[in-house]
Amino acid sequence: MAVTRRSVKxxxxxxxxxxxxxxxxxTKCNKLWPSMDLQLKPxxxxxxxxxxxxxxxxxLPARAKYMGKDIYRxxxxxxxxxxxxxxxxxxxxxxxxxxxxxxxxxxxxxxSDHLEELSRQLFRRIWYKSEGITEDGxxxxxxxxxxxxxxxxxxxxxxxxNDDIKEELKVxxxxxxxxxxxxxxxxxxxxxxxxxxxxxxDRIFLLAHYLGESLPYPQAKL
Amino acid sequence: MAVTRRSVKxxxxxxxxxxxxxxxxxTKCNKLWPSMDLQLKPxxxxxxxxxxxxxxxxxLPARAKYMGKDIYRxxxxxxxxxxxxxxxxxxxxxxxxxxxxxxxxxxxxxxSDHLEELSRQLFRRIWYKSEGITEDGxxxxxxxxxxxxxxxxxxxxxxxxNDDIKEELKVxxxxxxxxxxxxxxxxxxxxxxxxxxxxxxDRIFLLAHYLGESLPYPQAKL
Lengths: 222, 222
Prior knowledge:
The structure is a homodimer. Chain A is α+β, with helices and mostly antiparallel strands. Chain A has one domain: Glutaredoxin (3-Layer(aba) Sandwich), CATH 3.40.30.10. Chain A is 54% helix and 12% strand. Chain A has helices spanning 17-32, 45-52, 61-78, 88-95, 98-110, 115-127, 136-145, 150-159, 163-178, 204-211; strands at residues 6-12, 36-42, 186-191, 194-199. A four-stranded mixed sheet of chain A has the order 2-1-3-4. In chain A, helix 2 packs across helix 9 and helix 5 crosses helix 9 (163-178). Chain A is globular, with a radius of gyration of 17 Å. Chain A binds chain B through residues 52-54, 60-63, 65-66, 69-70, 73-74, 77, 180-183, 196-200, 202-203, 205-206, 209-210, 212, 217-218, 221-222, and chain B through 52-54, 60-63, 65-66, 69-70, 73-74, 77, 180-183, 196-200, 202-203, 205-206, 209-210, 212, 217-218, 221-222.
């Protein structure tokens, strides 16, 4: 009997370190689970924070100190290369991700085959290689690392100034908010006849359960 | 070869619904995992929030709405009976858990065999049966449900006014803060030669990994 593939929408922003975890875990699961049809949905985290009145968890000093350890432990568990950039607060509070998320939106609309690998390369620039994602040169490098041909990456970068692309990013962010999203990563799957929105890389166990799949972790015993 | 039992400290307050989840999961695991020696550490959540400047996650409306669904999904996954009391904000913001946590502290010091079941009955009063935990009559009922003899439960309730018990609750709360705890549930296990503090019922997968154990979930496929 053929397995019915169920749509799983992953809302993410490359500025969010736990989005990087969820992205790597879910793209891996998507290759292994016949029941999942993963849809990558780049959104703007600053828009979500602003609309819901939420603030980054790292604003609380005791939590920031904890997260500095927690994400290394979690990344290690999942076998994901992770390293905090030295200027993490400047990146998250000032530099932001607007152009990068527009770039991903352009890839999503124009050549969606490249969306996953381009997302990965942008995540890795911030959360492993301590490289920027705001300058055109940085975006171009990410495209190169993702194996995107030069003419196409130039087009993507041009499209970050396009009104339709800007609007699409707003619409996708509004779609997340409509699902009740207040932080990232969040994902949505139909279960028990309605969309279930779940927040955080630590809710993937519930997704696996709803899909009747097993998580491919831990990869090896300690 | 005998397995070395490793101490796992669980810091919890019966006022915290996700502490109820972690408590039920870890007490179950403690029966199944030869490597774990679970130590129940009742602390005062209001003290932890005040010292760290943290605030309950449900203060953000969008997150409160989400948590109202999330905890049912999580409780269902773990097979834990859960129902929000109708006056949940009044319970968490006004009524508090001071006397209940002192009661648990008295049980911990005086007759620790009763600590687990008394904790369970207090959790269940709030988070399943919509019953109080602030009046002496409520505490007495919890003791009865936990199978504690009448003379001993009267003694526990008297001890909630005892200075040594009050001090012990403060000391244990300070111990949690010293470990970097900023919210509950949190637990601490030695790994890689140092104490690893982890926050949230959703970090139990890491604890299992560090102990080399498997989680006994999901209990049944959907």
